[in-house]
Amino acid sequence: MAVWFGRLPVLAGMLFSLTLTGCASWSLWPVGQKSAGQQRVSGLLERGDHWTFRPCGQEHDRLLQPTPELEKLFDNVSQPGQLSMFAELVVTEENGRWIVQKTHRLQSTGRGCMDNSAKASQWVGFSYDPAWRVDITAQGMQLTTEDAESGRQLSTISEQLPDGVQVFRGVHDQGLELWLYPSGCIERSTGDYHHLSATLVRDGQRLRGCGYQGAKQ
Length: 217
Description:
This protein is mainly β. The protein has two domains: 16-26 and 122-213, no CATH class; 39-112, CATH 2.40.50.140. It has one helix at residues 68-77, and strands at residues 16-19, 39-47, 51-55, 62-65, 84-94, 97-107, 123-128, 131-137, 140-145, 156-160, 166-170, 176-181, 185-186, 193-194, 196-202, 205-213. It is elongated. This is Putative lipoprotein.
């Protein structure tokens, strides 16, 4: 049985914010679930003689053992001469060293540790061109766009498909869906990496973007 949540307030500001009510259960991603001993960490990743990682809000670096995937992504995302950038990783600890298990985000641009926009979100899908963002929270789904669509509000429900795809849509099929795919995504305007690909379906139009897991588990 679905459990319905209250409505969120409409956001003020330059961007128009569309708020929708929540529903159902918000389960974790079915592919690559966190195993015992794993932790998700955010902070400054630095490549030098040794790879190091400084978690947000801490003063000391940790030695890091990267995966071949992370090494390749660092080369692809970094600007010429750049040796450090913001990263969000899933790691385990072994003999005082963090062992990378998965890369969630790798960003050479943006606010890094100062970005709290996903603090209350469980999942995020977004694009910069055209500009849109969808936040999935315990209260529901919130869409932010550049246009003003007269405060349309919907109830939403989530669905997990066998191939690991997560879908959020209007209960009454009112033309708004967010699809999150468990495949990596390079944001084309910044070159930053995110561990999910996203598609926003809006009144029949399909808009591509990237996605990532928010701070709320």
